[in-house]
Amino acid sequence: MNKIKVLSVFGTRPEAIKMCPLVKLLEKDDRFESIVCVTAQHREMLDAVLEIFDVNPQYDLNIMAHGQTIIDVANKVLTGVDKVIKECRPDIVLVHGDTSTTLNGALAAFYNQVPIGHVEAGLRTGDIYSPFPEEANRKLTGAITTLHFAPTESNKRNLEKENITKNVYITGNTVIDALLSVVDKNYKFQDDILNNIDFTNNKVVLLTAHRRENWGEPMKDIFAAVRRLAEENEEVQIIFPMHRNPLIRELAKSCFEGIEEKIHLIEPLEYVDFANLMSKCYLIMTDSGGIQEEAPALGKPVMVLRTETERPEAVEAGTVKLAGINKEAIFNIANELINDKKAYEKMAHAANPYGEGEASAKILERIFEWIKIK
Questions:
Q1: Does the N-terminal peptide bond of residue 312 adopt cis geometry, omega within 30 degrees of 0?
Q2: What pLDDT score does 24 carry?
Q3: Any stretches that span the bilayer, and where are they (predicted)?
Q4: End-to-end alpha-carbon separation of the chain, Å?
């Protein structure tokens, strides 16, 4: 049997984190020929992850441009990946998650009648505009996918509700594969601000906030709740790696003015720094999706600063609380977790619903078996 030619397409930092463990395993497996195409929808952040995992793409579309729209990205990805597919003629194209790279990479494969493998399939919020455009991207990708690699049983049920029942496999999430490969209890950060924080004798809260739907008043309320948490709890220290969006950075600096000794505004962290920061902190407050998967593997409670989540299994498992965007509710939930040891321990010790770091191996086996019988 000839080697199975697998083209992996991704372009953002979160995609790279979750796809690189899969790519590295493909490279080591004699059954496969691994080809990587990055779109560079995120340029600098993508490159940093590629360097960490020592992944060298054969194709780089380099599409990132200042001020471009979603439609600009879509056009560039669709035409770029189409050319790559016509040149390398893969047996299957792998895409990940819910970005503009995901949907348009999958469309390029579909138009060329190449099978599609969707890594992290089946996530849903039920609201087509939240998150935007990610919810639509993943639903549309699912409609044309050949092999669906669903992290959890809940994700599989979401697909079943859309009459997608063929070739759906529960694999766990590849983000756990990535996370467990980089966390080190003796890790030293690149930023001395982090090295000088006493994680042992303080309750350090990691905050991340960047979602488009939280811009404006919701973000102000989130920051107000976080400030109050720091002011009313002596042992609390807040670390906020600020998103590069200037609107968020300016708002953060304004809202947290005068409390810099307790709320540390730092630059965005590279993946290994961020993973190890998660492992050392006490509590995580975030509007991110991926962190909801990663933190449970480290035993860290997560407060989701959104009104819905596409990862309800984490809420059901008890590792995540959906806090919403109301400042009183956010403060009350965070304050309880800071001061009520029983409530904290219940979340910290809940079972991780996203697997134990074997997702990449399971995906490769499913691809091999499917190609073999095709």
A1: no
A2: 97
A3: none
A4: 13
Q: For helices 359-373 and 13-28, what crossing angle results, to 10°?
A: 60
In angstroms, the CA 84 to CA 74 distance is: 15
What are the catalytic residues? 98, 120, 134, 210, 212, 243
Q: Which of 38, 29, 39 is nearest to 5 (CA)?
A: 29
What Rg, from alpha-carbon coordinates, does the chain have?
Answer: 20
Paired strand residues for 94: 8, 117
The CA dihedral of 193, 194, 195, 199, to the nearest 10 degrees, is 130
Token pair belonging to 199: 């994680």
Q: Would you say 297 and 331 are in contact if contact means Cβ atoms under 8 Å apart? A: no
Peptide bond into 131 cis (omega under 30): yes
CA distance 346 to 335: 15
Cα gap 139→118, rounded to integer Å: 11
Q: What is the distance between the alpha carbons of residues 70 and 364, in angstroms, rounded to a whole number?
A: 31
In the predicted model, residues of the chain with pLDDT beneath 50 are none
pTM, to two decimals:
0.82
The amino acid sitting at 232 is: E
Q: What b/e readout covers 142-175, taking b as 16+ CB neighbours within 10 angstroms?
A: beebbbbbbbbebbbebbeeeebeeebbbbbbbb
Contact 230, 263 (CB under 8 A): yes
Instruction: Give the full edge-to-edge strand order of the sheet including 4-10.
Output: 59-60, 32-38, 4-10, 92-96, 116-119, 147-150, 168-170
Strand partners, 59: 37
Residue in the structure block whose two tokens are 């910290």: 348
Q: What angle do CA 93, 6, 354 make, to 5 degrees?
A: 75
Closest Cα to residue 320, out of 283, 280, 347? 347
Q: H helices of the chain, where?
A: 13-28, 44-53, 70-88, 100-111, 134-144, 153-161, 174-182, 192-195, 217-232, 246-255, 271-280, 291-297, 312-317, 327-339, 341-348, 359-373
**pLDDT tens-digit map of 296-340:** 899 999 999 998 888 888 899 999 999 999 999 999 999 999 999
Alpha-carbon dihedral sign for residues 46, 47, 48, 53: positive
Strand pairing class (203-208; 283-286): parallel
